[in-house]
Amino acid sequence: MYFSEAPRWAAEAIRLRPELRHRSLTPTGLIRIEADPTAWQGWKAVPAGPLEEVFDVELPRSWSYTFDFGEYCVGYIEIGFGFSRRIDAPFRFRIKLAETPFEMASDFDSYRGGLGRGWLQEESFVFDAPPPVIRLPRRYAFRYLRLTVESNSSYYAVSLKSLRCDAVSSADPDRLTSLPTGCDELDRSIDRIGSATLAACMQTCYEDGPKRDRRLWLGDLRLQALADYTRFRNFNLIRRCLLLFAAATDEEGRVPACVYSDEPMPAAGNFIFDYGVLFGDILLDHLRAGGDIGFIRDLWPVAKRQCELALEDFEDDLFLDRHRHWLFIDWQDGLEKECAIQGVVTYAFARTGELAAELGCEAEVLEYPVIAARMRAAAREKWFDERAGFFRSGASRQLSWASQIWMALAGTLTEAETIDLLRRTIAGTGLVKPGGPYLYNQMVLALERAGLHDDARRLTRDYWGKMAELGADTFWEVFLPEEPLRTPYGDPMVNSHCHAWSTPVYHFRA
Ligand code: RAM
Fold first, then answer.
1. CATH, range 21-169
2. What average pLDDT does this structure show over 372-388?
3. Nearest CA to ligand 1 atom 6
């Protein structure tokens, strides 16, 4: 154990485990899923009759109905069945839950993705003696629910008495405030969808997505915390998550990319180079949002350690990829990441240095501003193409949003040059674009930091506004408008459609 405080941090994280709030949600209608080439991902939900047609009536031997809950739900399903007489054969039913019409239309048995099939929400249940109300054991995330009974006994008839979702979240809806004046209908819908996304992901930790992976990721937490400071302001949940990461550090003191559980000690998942090094940045955001300084000082050594470890992969102030770590940056295929990684680390050194100054620990890291300045100079020298006015990464000298964004956040250019760089990046053609909302969010942050609030607002409205227009209830993990079935996982049915790294809500209240 690198940090002897780890058991204390773990115990404190357990103490901060939140009570979940419950809401009872019931279906708003029956629907059927129809193919429609003009609909997003080729499928849409159309009304299929009133609910009265299926509740409290005698149903045929085999039946299947698809319910729309009218909003995104995260919680436990409870179904009440009625039986006309003593049951002579086990009662069997199936359930399928989906975030989107496309997912409901997909045949889960044809799944070929790299992630576990278990994420797809479909199961069968058999009861020898069914209780009047059956509460399903797993927590689900869905808007649409299909309930199927096949070949029930011809001896007894079944009726459907009730169906509800006991929805759970640790977000306090009473804390929601209205948007500042000057916001229009589109802003309001982006804000509403973003808040719903964040609330759905707020469980006993900030989950990346309540359907999948249902766990705490550091890069996601950074964006979720930023969003939450302006929304539900659940400081205790943010503290708990930071403690889980601190307690899950490895024998070298490395913060993991994700954490699975909390007891007795949090279990660390894999490591992502560009997530871990931003630990100090998250602490600085927390401090500036009004977090407790004593708490942050307690975790300061963890932030410092991440910077020390990152330097092991630098030579002559340049990041040297020894292929030891997972470099994330974005899901875009074929992305050259070296330059962006250099930007992340430079930014991390600058921000961790600022954190030290605010904590009164600057004497411990006097060299950080100097290291950051040297990294900037080395980056400019190695990757900046003066003629093109852009940074180019990798052997192929690739032009990408990722490189420009992180070089901007790192402060590699002057303020005026950065403004120009970011604007040309957005307007430019021929640059590799983001593969999803995570990197779009970094662009919004870079624009905000450069003082380009109108540009940040425009991008937010263009990108997330498009998802709103396409009918999103919550913001999606993956979104490329021109490629509806894009997936990083080998099969789009496992994509998450409620993913908190996707929410841009901090923007409207920043
Ligand atoms: C995905 C997760 C998460 C992200 C990592 C890198 O599988 O959903 O949001 O942080 O990958």
1. 2.60.120.260
2. 97
3. 328
